[in-house]
Hints:
This protein is mainly α. The chain has helices spanning 8-15, 31-43, 62-82, 87-95, 104-114, 116-119, 130-150, 154-162, 170-183, 189-200, 211-238, 244-267, 272-276, 295-318, 323-338; strands spanning 56-59, 100-103. Strands 1-2 form a two-stranded parallel ribbon. Helix 8 (154-162) crosses helix 15, helix 11 runs antiparallel to helix 12 and helix 11 (211-238) runs antiparallel to helix 14. The longest helix has 28 residues, at 211-238. It is flat and about 80 Å long.
Amino acid sequence: MAEFSPTASQREAIENRGGAVLVSAAAGSGKTRVLTERLMSRVTDPEAPADIDSFLVITYTRAAAAELKGRITDELADRIAADPSARHLRRQNALLQRAQIGTIHSFCTGLLRENCHLAGLLPDFAVADEDRARALKTLALERTLEAAYENPEPEFLLLTDTVGAGRDDRRLADLVLSLHDRMQCHARPEKWAERQVAALSETPEDAGDTPWGLELLDSGKADAQYWAGELNRLVALMAPESNAYIMKAYGGSISETSSALAAFAEAADRGWDAARDRLPIPFPRLGSLRNPPDAELAAFIKARRDACKEAMKKLAVTFAEPSEKLIGDLARTAPAMKA
């Protein structure tokens, strides 16, 4: 394996023994090599060397797991070649075959298979692939809907009449399956669902006080602040005397838009309707600009302004409805969502 000279942050990740360590970096930046070196530093610790099969090394895909195991194998081989008399290293090479280096799925499968009698599973169970899992979920949903139709509750009927409106329940089924898939990103999907149902029971006066409205307000505020900063940067680019011609044509319009964005960001802290009242963001007509001294700069400024304009069109759509209507819609649909 090629000589590795870690950076200061990489060395800290390799040598840190204080507890959990999070390594976050771009693809190709050496995360796998750092993980390999961290493992080897434990195995070759001069004071308390550990056996390689005492570690759990897991990743997300089989390909990544195979690559990781290959790198560890190569690193061990290189170190044994450098010191053939190292009995501990030769022992690690033998233990490598039973080391737990694999995917999350393989680790969980092994754990369940070893304890199948406690989990109520047959020892020869198999892990369903994505297609099989999708088919099983669809079948379970069909049976659930059939049972609900046999003794329909008012909330369920409202759900089918609104979300599932159509000749059949295909749209409703697709939405339920999609929501189920998205819920799996939560550690406790059932608890998350319970919190959402509880939130539906609350009817605040301002849409911005709902979890969803607060998220949209925060996102809208962040967008407005970003674009206000971008436009201020454009004004700064036009500030030098050499760009006075561009400033005269574009400066006033861009400054007015930047001020409106800052006003929206400030209003977002005061609630939904306060933010909505600041929309749409004005984009006054740019002045005429013919043969500017710096045509590239002028084109860049205009392109960034156009990008801001498109982003603000989307923002205006998000805040199209007043708080009173949104709260009313929420109250009317809450029973259906609880089903």
